[in-house]
C-alpha cells in the first residue's frame, strides 16, 4: 500500500479525514457529500481504478484482511468506517488496540457481521423476529423443519450479501456442505405482505434520525426498486417499525447508518429480516429525495457531527437499481435516457458491466407514485438492456 | 506538471473525461456531480492541495498560462472547460489548433474575458446596456462624464472579479494609472432597484435551459446573498430577462453555463451589467434548490449530454456566501451551526481563511423567504465571525 498521501489530506480549518475500508459504490457515494461538507474522504481500495478510487484523491490499494495495511491507512485518518461488513475481527481488534476511532465500533458491527449473534441479541431485546435456530447438524435441520414446517430459510451466518449465502431448503441435504464449514442459521419462512426497510442514523453522542419507512421490491434476491415512503403504510406500523429501529440503534450502540430490513406480516405486524450498519441500498432514494441523504448523514454520524434533517423533499421518491446486462458500452443508452426524461437523477458507479451486477441506480422525485415507478424502472431496464426502447 | 495519470482516467462503459482549467471552488463543486453522472473530472490546478485538487483523483499542478502544460493536460481529457476566464488567448489558440474540444469555445469566451468586446456585441444585438465608452485618454473620460453625469463606473476590460477592477470615479484622475496600461471601459452609473441574475445552460447541440431569475445582494462589491426566485418579480420582466439570456447564449454560441448579471431599473426594465461563462455564484442555490444544479448542468452541457430539468424543488431557496473572517479554525463554529439548524445545506470549499475570501456557502430551501434568509445569513455570519451567537 502507498501509505502516505503525497499532499496533506486535511483541508484548512480543522476539518477531519474520514477513512473508509473498502472501495465499492457505497464509499464512492460518500465522496460527493464529503466534498460539500468540507471534510476529506480517503478510501482503502481493492483496486486502483475501482468504484470509489475513481472518486477520491487518496485511495491506496490494500488488503482489508491485513492488519498492518489497514493500520497504516487508518493512521492517516481521524475516524474509520466501512464500505462492507467483511473486515475480519482481528483487524478490527488491531485498530482498537491502536486507539483508532471506528464507527460502527467492532462491538456493534458484530451484529451486522454475524447473523446468529444478531438473532440472539434481537431475541433478548424482544424485537419481533422469525423463529430461528443455529443448526450444527443434519439432525438439527430436520428437527427445526419438523417444528416450523418446510421449506425453511437457511443462511450462512457471515459473509453473505445480495441473496448470496441464503437458500430456501426442503431438507437437511440442501445445506450439507454448509454444515461442514460451521453452524447454519435456520429461519422459518415468513408469509409476508411485502418487504420494508427502516433507515436510521445514530451518532456517538446518541443523536438519532430516521428517514420514512420504505418499501423494497426484490427480484431473485436482489433489490430492484425502492419506494419512499412505503405506499399506504399504516401509521401505527410505521411508528412501531421506526421505534424498533431507533431502539436497536441505541441498544446495539450503532454509530453511522443502520438499515433494518423487515417483513410486513399478514397480521399487520412485522419481523426483522436483516441488519446492515452502513449506508444501504434501501436508502439510495434519500440522495435526491431528502434534505439530508444517507451518505452525508453517515459521514456526519461517524464524525459525531450533528445530524441533518431526514425530511423528504417531495411526497414520493422512487429508486431503481441498474443491473448490468450484456452490453458493456453504457454511455449511448445513458445519453438517450437523459434526453427522454430530464428529471431522472442518475447515479453511476464507474463499474464495468457484468450481468446482474449493480452498476448504478436512478432516482425520480415527485408525487405520482405509479408514474415515478414507471420512469425509474424504465431507465434502469433500458440501461440493463432488458428493454430497447 | 505530472502529465500522466497513474491509473486510467476513464471509467468503464464509454463515460468521458472532462478537464477543467483552474482549481478553485467552481471546479471543486463540479466534482460531486461528476461522480454521480459517472464521468471523470480532471483539474489543472494552481496548487496540489487547493480547493478542487482536494476533490478529484487527478489534479496535476501546472500553469494555465503555459500552452505546453495546458496541452499536455488537455490530451488526457475528452473536453476542456474552465474554472475562470483568465486563460490567455494564445493558450486557447494552441488547444484549438490541436483539435481539443473546448466549451465555451474561445470565440464565445472572448465576450466573458473582454468587457469591451461584450459591450460592443450586446449593443449590436440590441440587448439593453448602460451607456458606455472605451476611454483611451483622460480627455475621453472627461467627455464621457460630462455626457452621462458624474460619477461614472470605470472597469478594467479584462481580468477583474468580485469587485476588483471596478471603480466609481469622479474624474479622469481616478483612472490615470489604468489608462497607462490600455483602454478603460466607462459606463454610466445606473440607478437600479436591485440586482438580478439570469442563469442559462446551453449545449453544443443548441439545447438550452433556464433557471428562475434570482436576486443577488451585494456588499462592497461582493455577493453575500442570493434569493431564488427574485421576490415579487413581474412575470413580464422575468420573461424578458430570461429571453435575453437565452438569446445571448445562442447569439454568442455559449456552451456550458452562462450567467447574466442585470440591474432592474426604476422604469421596470433592465440593463445587463456583466456576463460570465461558467457556473456562477448566483447559481449556487441550485445545488440544493433545483432538480438539476448548475455544476451538474455545466458538465452535461460541455459533454453535449441532454440537459437536466432546472425545475425548483421548493418555493424559495436562499444562498448566503461564507466570507473568511479573522479566525482560521472553522470546524467548531461549523459544528455549532449544524446543531443549531439541521436543515442547513453547507458547502465548504476547503480553503484557508482570509478576511473577505469566499470560503463556502450555505443554502436553505423552503417557503418562508424571510425566515430562510435569516437562517442562511446567520450561518454565514457566524462562520465569518461577524456574529458570535
From TrEMBL, chains A, B:
Annotated keywords: ATP-binding, Ligase, Nucleotide-binding, Purine biosynthesis
Binding positions (ATP): 115, 155, 187-190, 195, 273-274
Enzyme Commission designation: 6.3.4.18
Pathway in which the depicted protein is active: Purine metabolism; IMP biosynthesis via de novo pathway; 5-amino-1-(5-phospho-D-ribosyl)imidazole-4-carboxylate from 5-amino-1-(5-phospho-D-ribosyl)imidazole (N5-CAIR route): step 1/2
Keyword hit for Transferase: no
Recorded catalytic activity of this chain's protein: 5-amino-1-(5-phospho-beta-D-ribosyl)imidazole + hydrogencarbonate + ATP = 5-carboxyamino-1-(5-phospho-D-ribosyl)imidazole + ADP + phosphate + 2 H(+)
UniProt domain ATP-grasp: residue ranges: 119-303
Broad class of enzyme this protein falls into: ligase
InterPro entries xref list: ATP-grasp, ATP-grasp_carboxylate-amine, ATP_grasp_subdomain_1, PreATP-grasp_dom_sf, PurK, PurK_C, PurT/PurK_preATP-grasp, Rudment_hybrid_motif
Coiled coil: none
PROSITE patterns: ATP_GRASP (PS50975)
ATP-binding listed as a keyword: yes
Role this protein plays: Catalyzes the ATP-dependent conversion of 5-aminoimidazole ribonucleotide (AIR) and HCO(3)- to N5-carboxyaminoimidazole ribonucleotide (N5-CAIR). Catalyzes the ATP-dependent conversion of 5-aminoimidazole ribonucleotide (AIR) and HCO(3)(-) to N5-carboxyaminoimidazole ribonucleotide (N5-CAIR).
Protein family according to the UniProt entry: Belongs to the PurK/PurT family.
Subunit structure: Homodimer.
Full protein name: N5-carboxyaminoimidazole ribonucleotide synthase
Taxon lineage: Bacteria, Bacillati, Actinomycetota, Actinomycetes, Micrococcales
